[in-house]
Amino acid sequence: MDITLRPADEDDAHAVTAIINEGQPEPEEVDAVRERIRAARADGRLITRLVATDADGHVIGYGHALREDWMATGLYWVHVAVASSARCQGVGDALFGAARDWATARGATTFLGAARDNLPESRRFTERHGFRLDRHIFESTLDLAAFDAAPFTAAIDATRASGLRFLTMADAGDTSDAHHALWELERTVARDIPGGSESVIRPFEAFAQRVFDATGYRPELQFIAADGDTWTGLALTEIAPETNSLYNNITGVLPAWRGRGVAQALKLLIIRAAIQRGVAYLRTNNDAENAPMLAINRKLGYRAEPGYYRMRSDLTAPPIAMQAPGGVQ
Known about the structure:
The chain is of the alpha+beta class. It has helices at residues 13-21, 30-42, 91-104, 120-128, 155-161, 176-189, 197-201, 204-210, 262-276, 291-300, and strands spanning 4-7, 46-53, 59-67, 75-82, 110-116, 131-143, 165-168, 223-227, 230-240, 245-253, 281-287, 303-314.
């Protein structure tokens, strides 16, 4: 296949979004993809976004490599996605090779990426390029129309009876001070959440961009547990209007307050608020090693969905010889 690589621009947003969404459990929004492409071209961060086009100029693949200055030295995230009609023709190899060359020229020593666990060819592609399994992340959904609240009617009251109270970011005023307090709480609870290392080191500005600046952020849907004036647990969510769903990004409790039903109560508050808003379903993800949270989700009725493997590559190692052309996300 005749393949041309070039920097992505905002006019590519529709095509790039369609390609990305072929392998996503939740669809990306075109406007969000367009904004990320625009920002990459405007703010001078260490990021490259590329598209692959065929002989007729049609976008058939997308790839990026990026790092934030707070990430571990030499660490870059990489993503490659190829239209299903153009796979196994060298498009993914070309995009990955360009991303690798760009990143290594800027000091990259490690790549992190993801491969869907229900697409064997996705993992084969990453392994062929020198990646190895780092973590397995499970996805799960809760159908709110089928949720049975009866077994949990007293759960929130029982947690309150232990001396805790619950509030939302809206209750806290959604102020700058509240934002910083939430960031500090997330950093602390993430220290012993499997796979939570990024949250531990992420600075406030990056957290604010990811949470408060997100199009799906709603202060009334961010839940906090408190013991007096001490915030002891949190459950952060993001609304997705295009699918009428709610994503539970993280639920965590400080160690001294665990074993009192706080995490379950926070999740039940999310469920209650989502039902009141007419949300169709909840989605969340958990590291395969996070047995306590997986057990809570199963108890609440979450259904297992295909997830993804987080893959890691040592870029200082010799490249693995190509076995066959291909490219999937």
